[in-house]
Amino acid sequence: MTYSTVLFYVFAFLTIVSAVYVVTAKNIVHSAYSLFVTLFGIAAFYILLKADFIAVTQLMVYIGGILILMLFGIMLTQKVTDVEIKIRILNIIPSVIFTVGITAILLFVMLTTNWRIKTPVVYESTVGEIGRQMLSGYLLPFEIASVVLLIALIGAAMYARKTK
Amino acid sequence: MEIGLHHYLIVSAILFGLGLFALISRRNAILILMGIELILNAANINLVAFSHFGGLGVDGQLITIFVIILAVAEAAIALAIVLNLYNHFSTVNVDEANTMKD
């Protein structure tokens, strides 16, 4: 058991337990805070996979952006002290069967396929290589992504405004 | 035991399953969004794990960045829609939002 193996199991346990809590919690605010732990665990996986830039992006964009946005969404759409915030889970048995089935199929395919494993390319830091790729091979998607973000920003601001 | 590709694939499959469960069984619009985020994150783990263990350099990581960008755009638009839903129906339960125009 090396050091990174132990870390992997700790973070896997943390991620899966908090993800289970996200989908089963009765209180939606608890779900949002639990999602925070899940996203942190996923950032830890990226670090274990030597993807440092993605890990930092995950922390900044998901935890600093999307999660805060969701908390705002929760607080703007329901009264925290209300009973309304406790929400029920519908169709438990069919959805558990369906979900377990799909997950089992996925796991079966993933574990029985003979994946082509190569020795990992290890970079000192991935930031330089990502920057180089983004302005050469991935220039067009990069530009399109910036336009998409601008449109999404304008659209969200316009659509969320109260109009009468 | 060395951590290999399979370990990451198993974790991501479980996260995908949980996200799917949230999509199917919860009726709160924001919880459905959280389920979508879980599914996107499961896909991202797969991309980064394949690019690491497949010796593909940073290709998978670049695609992950684009997925994150689209997830942000999606979350912003979806929350704007949820706010409008709340203004119209005074609820975020997706089952009760059953008219297209009032």
Structure write-up:
The complex is a heterodimer of chains A (164) and B (102). Chain A has helices at residues 3-24, 28-48, 52-77, 92-112, 126-134, 139-160. Chain A has 164 residues and is an all-alpha fold. Chain A folds into two domains: 3-87, Four Helix Bundle (Hemerythrin (Met), subunit A), CATH 1.20.120; 125-164. The longest helix of chain A has 26 residues, at 52-77. Chain B has a single domain (5-89), classed as Orthogonal Bundle (Helix Hairpins). Chain B has three helices and no strands. In chain B, α1 (5-25) packs antiparallel against α2 (29-53) and α2 (29-53) runs antiparallel to α3. The longest helix of chain B has 31 residues, at 59-89. The radius of gyration of chain B is 17 Å and the shape is elongated. The termini of chain B are far apart. Chains A and B meet through α1, α2, α3, α4 and α5 of A and α1, α2 and α3 of B.
Structural features:
heterodimer; A: about 160 residues; mainly alpha; Four Helix Bundle (Hemerythrin (Met), subunit A); 2 domains; 6 helices; B: about 100 residues; Helix Hairpins; 3 helices; about 75% helix
* Poorly predicted ranges of chain A: none
Strand content of chain A: under 5%
Roughly what fraction of the amino acids of chain B lie in strands? under 5%
Q: Largest sheet of chain B, described in full?
A: none
How would you name the CATH homologous superfamily of the largest domain in chain A? NADH-ubiquinone/plastoquinone oxidoreductase chain 6, subunit NuoJ
Quaternary state of the chains: heterodimer
Largest sheet of chain A, in brief, is: none
Question: Count the helices of chain B. How many?
Answer: 3
Task: Tell me the overall shape of chain A.
Answer: globular
Number of helical segments with 4 or more residues of chain A:
6
Radius of gyration of chain A: 20 Å
Radius of gyration of chain B: 17 Å
Distance from N terminus to C terminus of chain B (CA atoms, Å) equals: 61 Å
Class of secondary structure makeup of chain A: mainly alpha
What is the mean pLDDT of chain B?
88
Number of domains of chain A: 2
Give me the CATH architecture of the largest domain in chain A, please.
Up-down Bundle
